[in-house]
């Protein structure tokens, strides 16, 4: 009888982008955004309901909420996860993610994605144009 590889569940974890690992372990960096609508439509913006939405600047996760303006109660919360973020079905545990984060932090386990990007950057290196990103200041 074959024995399952006890480390197989870590392979998906190792492929996760650094930002996803950081968000999973260090929490998201949410910035307010206009309500994209869609989820939780029964809680429309009104005198008694406030709709609030935010997006994580690092991983792109969108959080949609509805709050009761009178009681302050949270009526509704929905999360829209970015593609590739989920570890569902992989068997990875929260402590596995924390260990992966620490390994990357210590430079022992650079993510495959990071390594692939570095390799791609080396093959498609371009000479940056001086001041290419600078734009004239807006009047006023
Ligand atoms: Zn995030």
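Sequence proposed for the structure above (140 residues):
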């Amino acid at each position: 009888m074959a024995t399952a590889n006890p480390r197989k569940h870590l392979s998906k974890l190792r492929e996760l982008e650094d930002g996803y690992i950081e968000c999973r372990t260090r929490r998201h960096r949410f910035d307010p955004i206009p309500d994209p609508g869609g989820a939780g439509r029964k809680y429309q913006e009104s005198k008694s309901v406030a709709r609030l939405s935010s997006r994580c600047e690092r991983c792109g996760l969108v959080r949609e909420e509805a709050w009761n303006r009178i009681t302050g109660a949270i009526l509704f919360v929905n999360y829209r996860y970015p593609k590739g973020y989920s570890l569902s079905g992989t068997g990875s545990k929260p402590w596995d993610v924390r260990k992966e984060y620490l390994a990357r932090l210590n430079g022992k386990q650079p993510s495959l994605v990071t390594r692939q990007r570095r390799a791609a950057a080396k093959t498609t290196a371009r000479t940056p144009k001086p001041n290419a990103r600078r734009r004239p200041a807006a009047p006023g």
